[in-house]
Amino acid sequence: MVKITPIPAFQDNYIWMIQNGNHVAVVDPGDAAPVISTLQKENLTLDAILITHHHNDHIGGVQNLLKEFQTQVFAPANESFDFPHQAVRENDLIQLPNLKLNLSVLDIPGHTNGHVAYYGLNHLFCGDTLFGGGCGRLFEGTYEQLFNSLQKLAALPDETLVYCAHEYTEHNLRFASLVDSKNPALINRITLTKKVRASNTPSLPSSIGLEKETNPFLRCEDQTIASALGLQASDTITVFKTLRNMRNNF
Ligand SMILES: [Zn+2]
Q1: CA 55 – ligand 1 centroid, Å
Q2: Residue closest to 74 by CA, chosen among 48, 103, 46
Q3: Given CB 3.0 to 4.6 Å as the disulfide criterion, which of 21, 94, 224, 228 pairs with 179?
């Protein structure tokens, strides 16, 4: 049985730990210390490190983990890294036999040019591209790229569990309610998220189905959202662009 738990890091990062028995893989270890202490405490073997993109809060712990453990690192082919790794791209399949898990690689550029996601067994590790109720900032790519990447993730089965790299859900949902205030699924999610966060429990994983119902960045074709922005006559990309720019200042 694959079990997935968050290792909190920095202010709001989650380093997701994928575990089967004593074997684990970690996604985006921005900091080595909390990973090392978790592995030692539970006597776990680190089989792999999976990197979604090159930002330091996602890779900052890799060098120190490699000093402690002999392990394989997978990182996007379209970005450069100063640690040894296997470059991965769309359609690659990562086999983790000790975890009884295969993960396929999806290219999802936008937040950064080479950003990838890892997807398998109904689990999606999407780094800083899709967040609970929101999406990542555009640092390197174009609006079209980020929009298409989000659409690619939205096309995964509704029951897919979504493991984002930051706890941004509550703030994102507050933003979502500016443009989609009457959406009952959104209202319900805001209530549940508040409750969960009040007890300091992660709001994640989310699911693709829930994101499609409540995340405005996946709902740019919805007339309610376009109308709230005064963009009834505009195309979907314009709605997306406007939303993303508004969110930058929210
Ligand atoms: Zn990032």
Answers
A1: 5
A2: 48
A3: 228
